[in-house]
Structure formats: C-alpha cells, structure tokens
Amino acid sequence: MKHALIVEDIPETRTWMGRILALAFPGIAVRAAATLEGARRLLDDPLDLALIDLNLPDGFGAEFIVEVKGRFPAAVCVVATTFDDDEHLFPSLQAGADGYLLKDMTVEQIQNLLLGIQRGIPPLSPAVARRLLGHFRAPLPTVPSRPELTPREQETLALIAKGLSIKEAAAILDLSQHTVGGYVKEIYRKLGIGSRAEAALEASRMGLFAKD
After folding, report:
1. What is the pTM of this model?
2. Tens digits of per-residue pLDDT, 167-176?
3. Domains of the chain, first to last
4. DSSP state string for the chain
C-alpha cells in the first residue's frame, strides 16, 4: 500500500485515521478530503486504499465507492463509520466496498484488520461480520422479481448514474428531453429508487459502468 485517501468530515477523526494508516503501512502517502466533492478532485492521483465515511456533508459515501472502483478497480475501499445497520451496511457492500470498519474500535484493532488486506482478508469489524452471518442464516423473505429494464432504459440509467443531466443524456442518445425524462421516471419506478445515488448503485450492480 503506497497511496491512501481518507474521506471524513470530522478533522479529529481524519487525523486519527491517518495515524492508523501510518502505523499499518509505514511510508504510505495519505491524502484527505472532508467532502465527496473534495475527494473527487483527488482521483487524478494514484490510489491503493480508501477509507470512506458514509454520512458526508454533500452525499452518501457509497456513491464515492462506485466512482473509485470505476477509476481504480484494484483499489481497496473500506467504509469507516459508526453505523452498523442494514440500511448502511448492505448498500455499501453493493457499491463495491471491500471492508466495513466501525469507529468504536481501538487503534490497534483497526490497524490489525487493515494489515489483513495484504493477506487477502477483508477488513470487517467483528460486529459487522456477525451481522452478515446472521443475515444469511435468517430465512429469506420472498421478494417479487422486479421488471427488467429495456436496452434503452439501461443506456439512460448508465448516463444518469454518471451524473449527466437529462438534457446531456438526451443529446448523447439523440432523443428529446421529454423522452429521456420519461425513461428516467420508468427506471425509477421499475427499480423502486428515488435518487441519483441509488441509481448509481443500481447501475454498478447491473454492471453498466463496465460497458463503457
């Protein structure tokens, strides 16, 4: 591990996380950002490891995981958060997180879990690992299958998920804004989503970014 990025809005926590990285990987170059916007500006530099908070001032950290994986497929993205509930855990894993650490652990505990990355061991807090085991041991509810997206809807989703406006997507697809707007509404209805962050997660899950 030579290059790391910390995305965390609390200055004291950024310093604490930087100290852990220095202990785990002596000599590692660490950059930090307090917002998603600031983190995106650092994606032109090499990246091996990212520690990402989830609740950031300008968005959900899982959005950034999707972007990092798109730019640096081999980079290790580890969530560092106080939330251990399903609403935060599973969207993060679906976005491509390679690990999930809770901030209530000691410096030594987090350091040891990060060191496991080089041995191919996912850095998971014990409480998170237990939650995952419990989830898969529980009886699975019957979930109705969702309607499939048409090829044109998939193209639209891929563009919208990358942050393009309806106007920009319409220009690329050579369609009217009205038509693309209709596609977006239908996509949101079929997938049961209501935001661009969720659209990005669904596009990643469906492998649409890989089709570029």
Report:
1. 0.66
2. 999 999 999 9
3. 1-135 (3.40.50.2300), 149-204 (1.10.10.10)
4. --EEEEE-S-HHHHHHHHHHHHHHSTT-EEEEESSHHHHHTTTTS--SEEEE-SEETTEEHHHHHHHHHHH-TT-EEEEEES--SHHHHHHHHHHT-SEEEETTS-HHHHHHHHHGGGGT---B-HHHHHHHHHHHHSPPPP-PPPPPPPHHHHHHHHHHHTT--HHHHHHHHT--HHHHHHHHHHHHHHHT--SHHHHHHHHHHTT-GGG-
